[in-house]
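Action item from last week, closing it out:
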Amino acid sequence: MPKILIIGIIILCSSCSFTSRENYDPWIADEEACRELAKVDKCLKVFEASEWMQKQKETELESMFPNFLPEEAESIREAYLWIEDKYCHVPRYAEFLLYQKCKSNVILKTKPKNLPEFEQSFIDELNKELSSIFRIHNAPSIDWSELINDDYQKYQVWLISKESDPDRWNDIKITVFFDENNNRISMRLFQSESGCKEYKPYKNTVATVVENDTNVDSDFKSFIQKFTTNQSYQLSHIKFPLSSGMDKSSWDFLSSDIIFEGSKEFEGSKLQGSFKKNGNIYNYELGIVESDLLIAITFQKINSDWYLTEYTDLFYEIDDF
C-alpha cells in the first residue's frame, strides 16, 4: 500500500483508535515493535545455526563422563538423550532473553510458564552469546502485513514482511494479544508447539539411590547429583588444597562410577558405596564387599553449602575404573 495512501487514511481516521481490534494493523500501529520482532526472529535463526549449543552439549556430556569406558555406554546414551531434551527448550529461552533487549514496551517480555529453570551460570553464558548477535543486527523496515487468523478471542495472528525481502521468502508470523475490551496489549513472535518433552532434572545412579534413603538430607541429595555430573560445580565445591596435598591441577573428576550408594560389579568384584551422616558431615566410603576399603571422602556443610573437605584414595588403581 503506498505511503501517501496510508497517510490519508490516518488523517481521515484520526478520531479512531489504531490499537482497537476492529481497526488494528501492526504495521501502522506498532511499526517499531514489528521491526524489533523481525530483528529477534533474525537473531534466533543466527543463534540456532551457530555451533554454540552443540559445543555446550558436548561440554556437558564430557563433564559427566570425562573418561569414556565401554561399560559406561548405556549411561552415556541416557545422558545424551537427557541433554537433547534439555537443550530442546533453549531456543524458546533465547527468545525470551532477546525480548528483554528490545526497547518497545509493546513486546511481551514475560517469561512463558512452560520454560524450565536453567542454572544461572548457563543463562549468563547464553545471554552473553545472544548479546553479541543482537548487537550486530539492525531492526529491518517493515512494508507489508496481513491478518491470517482472527478466530481466537484473545489474540490475532499476522504475517509481516521486511522491506528487504520483496519476494516475501521470509515472512514473519507474529501473535497480537488483546484485552477484554479488544484493545491491543502486547505482541510477540508466533509460538507453535515446540515438540519438546517436559524437562526433568537428570537422575543418575547416585540421585536414584540416594533418594530412596530417608536418612539423607534433601539438600545433600541435590548436591551429590550436581557434584557427580558437573565438573565445574565439583571443582568449586572442594576445599583445596586437601590435606593429602591435592589441588585443582591434580584433581580427577569424581563421577557416579566412583560416588554412589549401593553395589555394582567391576571386573569380577562387587563394589559397595555408602554414606554415613555425623552432624553436618557425611562420610562416604567405597570398597570391595567383604574386603578392602578403596576410597574415603568427607563432605561437610559450610555456610549453608556442601563441600568435599577430605579425600583419601587407598587403592589408586581405582583411577582406571
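Closing note: The longest strand covers residues 269-278.
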